[in-house]
């Protein structure tokens, strides 16, 4: 469904909602209103999410990679703990996959800490908006 079709659908729903309200059918008016809200929620969810996550000069309030990796690993452990008692083969395979993902997040955390140590040899960290220690502008 394209944008024009969605606009037209929303207009039709609004007209029906108003018509039901005028004729006293509040239940149907509410149903149309709920349908409109659902379409609007789906539109919001369908919006592309290009919001930066990592801390950088252009996103100084972002997360440090090493912190994200730990947070994700922690959430995966919690998620995996909830399925431990279920011994169905599919769940056991999913749990094995979860543990591998947790290990990968740990690897990301360790490698990023190594990068932090390497960069500390280049000079003090001036934060995301300070002078970079490498790349453009480090001179």
Describe what is shown at a glance.
With 139 residues, the protein is mostly helical. The chain is 65% helix and 0% strand.
Question: Explain this structure to me?
Answer:
The chain is mainly α and 139 residues long. 65% of the residues lie in helices and 0% in strands. Helix 1 (3-22) runs antiparallel to helix 2. The longest helix is centred in the last third of the chain and has 32 residues, at 89-120. The chain is flat. The relative contact order is 0.08. The model has no long low-confidence stretch (mean pLDDT 91).
- Overall geometry comes to flat
The main β sheet shows up as: none
Give the proportion of residues in helices: 55-70%
Mean pLDDT across every amino acid position: 91
Which structural class fits the helix and strand makeup? mainly alpha
N-to-C SSE series? Answer: HHHH
Q: Count of helices?
A: 4
Query: pLDDT below 50 for ≥5 consecutive residues: which ranges?
Result: none
């Amino acid at each position: 469904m394209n944008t024009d079709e969605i606009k037209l659908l929303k207009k039709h729903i609004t007209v029906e909602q108003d018509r039901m309200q005028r004729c006293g059918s509040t239940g149907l008016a509410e149903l149309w209103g709920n349908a409109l809200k659902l379409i609007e929620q789906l539109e919001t969810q369908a919006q592309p999410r290009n919001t930066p996550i990592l801390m950088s000069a252009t996103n100084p309030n972002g997360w440090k990679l090493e912190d994200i990796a730990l947070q994700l690993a922690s959430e995966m452990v919690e998620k995996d703990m909830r399925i431990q008692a279920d011994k169905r083969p599919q769940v056991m395979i999913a749990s094995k996959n979860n543990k591998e993902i947790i290990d990968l997040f740990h690897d990301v955390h360790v490698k990023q800490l190594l990068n932090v140590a390497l960069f500390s040899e280049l000079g003090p960290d001036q934060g995301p908006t300070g002078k970079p220690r490498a790349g453009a502008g480090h001179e």
